[in-house]
Amino acid sequence: MSPEQKIQELTDQLNHYNYRYYQDSVSEISDFEFDQLLKELKALEDQYPDFRLGDSPTQRVGGAITKSFNAVYHRYPMLSLDNTYNEQELRNFDERVRKGLDGEPYEYICELKFDGISLSFTYENGVLVRGVTRGDGTRGDEITNNVKTIRSLPLRVKAEDQPPIFEVRGEGFMPITSFQKLNEEMETLGENQYANPRNAASGSFKLQDSGETARRALDCYVYTFLTDTEFFKSHEESLLGLKSWGFNVSPGWKKVSNIDEVIAYIHEWEDKRMTLPLATDGIVIKVNSFEQQRELGFTAKSPRWAISFKYKAENKPAILRSVNYQVGRTGAVTPVANLCDLTERALPYNKVKGVHLSGTRVKRATLHNANELERLGIQLGDTVFVEKSGEIIPKITGVDVSQRELYPTTPIIFPTHCPECNSELQRNEGEVAFFCPNDSHCPPQLKGRIEHFIHRKAMNIESLGEGKIELLFDLNMVRTPADLYDLTYENLLGLEKTIVNEETGKTKIISFREKTVENILKGIDLSKTVPFKNVLFALGIRFVGATVAEKLAAYFKSIQALRTATYEQLTAVPEIGGRIALSIESYFSIPENQDLVERLEKAGLQMESDEKPVELESDMLEGKTFVISGVFENFERDDLKMKIEVNGGRVLSGVSGKLNYLLAGANMGPAKLEKARKLGVTILSEEEFLAMIENK
Ligand SMILES: NC(=O)c1ccc[n+]([C@@H]2O[C@H](COP(=O)([O-])OP(=O)(O)OC[C@H]3O[C@@H](n4cnc5c(N)ncnc54)[C@H](O)[C@@H]3O)[C@@H](O)[C@H]2O)c1
Ligand SMILES: [Zn+2]
Q1: Which of 121, 188, 452, 595 has the fewest Cβ atoms within 10 angstroms?
Q2: 0.85 surpassed by complex ipTM
Q3: What atom of ligand 1 comes closest to residue 118's alpha carbon?
Q4: Closest among 544, 420, 513 to 473, alpha carbons compared
Q5: Which ligand has its closest atom nearest to the C-alpha of 439?
Q6: Probe target for ligand 1 pocket from 13, 41, 198, 308, with the most ligand atoms within 8 Å of CB
Q7: Is the overall model pTM greater than 0.95, yes or no?
């Protein structure tokens, strides 16, 4: 490959990873691998400057704006940071700073590098007026409502001496505990999980629904202060100032006077950072004086007065002792490696503590699926390499085959039957995971369905949690959601169970006293008033998520109509395709499911949508579909909806190719408008719509 082709290839590759990382919050390769490729491209471009492409990722901040928010220009560009993984390059940076400052004395501030997303907050007269993402560095997404959910961020700064307009920047992040909780929830709901807290934070700050963002308990550490005219003299002063104004300034920062002290700081935090409640991926070094920062200036992509040092994920050898197969709530079977340290080879497995890795001891690593086992080519007894990806979840990165001469190994045989219920495992075409098809009897799947059923977005039975469900399940008192409605005060009172956390060995006792029992029963009773659409979602029919359930409920209005609907009737519903229709048909054809629905109906759950059937004024909009968006002069949205329905039309929530009209008010999202235009949907103003129905 010629250098020109290589440059082209690396540019395309890196731009693709950037897109996945910033737009989709997905890491297709590790940060280290990404940074190595970027370095390779940079070196080639330096050698062959003529071949550098206009869209080279070495010249631009990696992100972009999305179409779902207002794009706003940054008052000051939001750049990236140059980075390095080794001390020598850090010393080279120090050399450049020394030269750039012509022998003046200088100091550094060392800070932790938090792994989240860059945010900018603008304050006018002390009031938080705008929150924006970094975007492409010039323009970002305005997510003010979402940043306002950060509890530690002052909405108003009371200090008397503050400038009239200033900008604060920091890192929005998701604490590790929130991350774990969120992923568990995603699993219960059968949605894709996030690979690490950074991706989870990035996805959560860019949700359309601020209520959901609020629930995800995001936080932020601030580390930058900007004004038009100089207010503080140094970075140190600004950090102290921000703190005194009530900002959550990043903890752990330190002023140092030379590069050796910087390196000492790096060593000091290498393990200590693991005790922090959030993910960190390195440290940041900044020249302290603002005046000197200005002297040093910027490159196209990053300041010359700062650099980040990234800790390389620790990679260590371990012995693969055995593989367990876990059956998830959706029936997917995941192989999990049981590991021990090289020094623990002779110990029985229940005595081993695991490999030391980035501050903790690791005994397990996910192997994802059968394909991954094949890809790695590992065998039982192998010496494998383990790494914590995103510093949180351990994974196996490779195998040391040379050790096989010394220590015999045996092939791993993926089970053909479910370890929990012994049904024969299946794999759908095009999917990597094997799954247990026995969804009506396999214990983890049954339990999973009950957890799904009580979830906040489903029946919302808050007084029951995972532990309580587990207790009731293990005692055989609740095997299906319908059993919940047969529980009585007498048979709940006094139940008790000790739950042992397998990882930590900690025990927790759950016991049902008067108050608990009363609460549980109250919660269950209250769920009988939950609307039909939630009940439908709670059933956990494959591919029927909350939104689909809402559409089906609005269309069919009752479980009776839905369960007798034909494939044709189902696919006639806007936005319901063949895959969903088949899944619904198959669900209602299974006797256990029919029985469940009947029992729930008897228990008094809402099986009809109580929206009143509309009395038609005309049928002039018959067969026509509308989406209403924005704000209107003469009507509330609900009135418009009513107007459409009494004339025989239907209102949908999303713009798709099947849609006839988009009724566009003021302030509607530009993304929706553009999509409608692209799909050739007719766009109506309020006046045009009124004219249309008055013509009847
Ligand atoms: N794995 C992938 O597919 C993939 C794809 C694209 C980018 N990446 C990773 O992202 C990096 C590029 O992202 P980036 O441009 O945000 O650079 P970066 O994350 O390496 O550094 C810049 C960012 O650090 C953050 N930061 C955290 N603590 C800080 C502090 N105390 N002071 C100042 N800033 C602080 C800021 O948000 C700033 O924007 C790449 O080097 C790579 O590691 C990975
Ligand atoms: Zn099973």
Answers
A1: 595
A2: yes
A3: 37
A4: 420
A5: 2
A6: 308
A7: no
